[in-house]
Write a structure and sequence with these properties.
By secondary structure, the chain is α/β, with parallel strands linked by helices. About 25% of the residues lie in helices and about 25% in strands. It has helices at about 20-35, 60-75, 150-155, 175-185, 230-240, 250-255, and strands spanning about 5-10, 40, 75-80, 80-85, 90-95, 105-110, 130, 135-140, 160-165, 190-195, 205-210, 215, 225-230. It starts with a strand and ends in a 36-residue tail after the last helix.
Amino acid sequence: MSYFTIAGVQMHALHHGDNTEAMRHRVDVLMSRFPQVQMVVFSELMPLGASPHHAQPMPSHAEQLFCQIAEQHRIWLIPGSMFEHTDQGIFNTLSVINPHGQVVARYRKMFPFLPYEAGVESGSEFVVFDVPNVARFGVSICYDMWFPETTRTLAAMGAEVILHPTMTDTIDRDIELSIARTNAAVNQCYFFDINGAGAIGNGRSIVVGPSGDVIHQAGTGEEVMPIEVDLNRVRRERETGLRGLGQPLKSFRDRRADFSVYRSENGSSPFLDTLGPLIKPLRADVEEY
């Protein structure tokens, strides 16, 4: 199968609170209106909001609800992410659920948005999964995409589509749109960057094709985006080049360069060590008049 339909859901939700029933309703309406949809992707931290105080061990009741929804509609479902409580700490975790209502993978965000996403641990394992007879998909979350190594690793693992829930309510959303396009182009893959709206994101979700072309960019309000992807396009462009030109994945594979910044265990360097601690900026003292 070359064609596969993925719907990104950009919706308003509570910043702190249970949004799971609203998500169930949104899927019910979506599937009634667009029955051709085979996969649904929500934004980061949509189910239970953005507070680590709502962290739950997994499997959880919320995750089980999404398993029921996926099985009911026979869809692949990525319900954004949820804070996961473990003995090692709290993680920002994404579940991948298949049409049989089974959790086939969980991904823990590698780069919490420090210093603002305080108290959240970093995951360490990349996650790809296969939709049989369709394609291999990779997942990442929000700030992960600011580190090109994350998407490049997923592409090197065979991912042809990257699913990327985000929760951006800050003034750097325009930069993220450029990063999403760049990630798609340099890795020759589809990139679904799905944001929330209202209190849980400033919208402008974006779906990008393997040439870095914008297939759809949402506004700032609620929106459902059913997009049919053509996996043969990914394979053809990886074979012949982006717009018949550069073949970045092959060039990366065949490189002679040895990136010295990666030689140390933590990726540090003498210069990076001079940048100081990773903390919130403080207000400068102002002389009183």
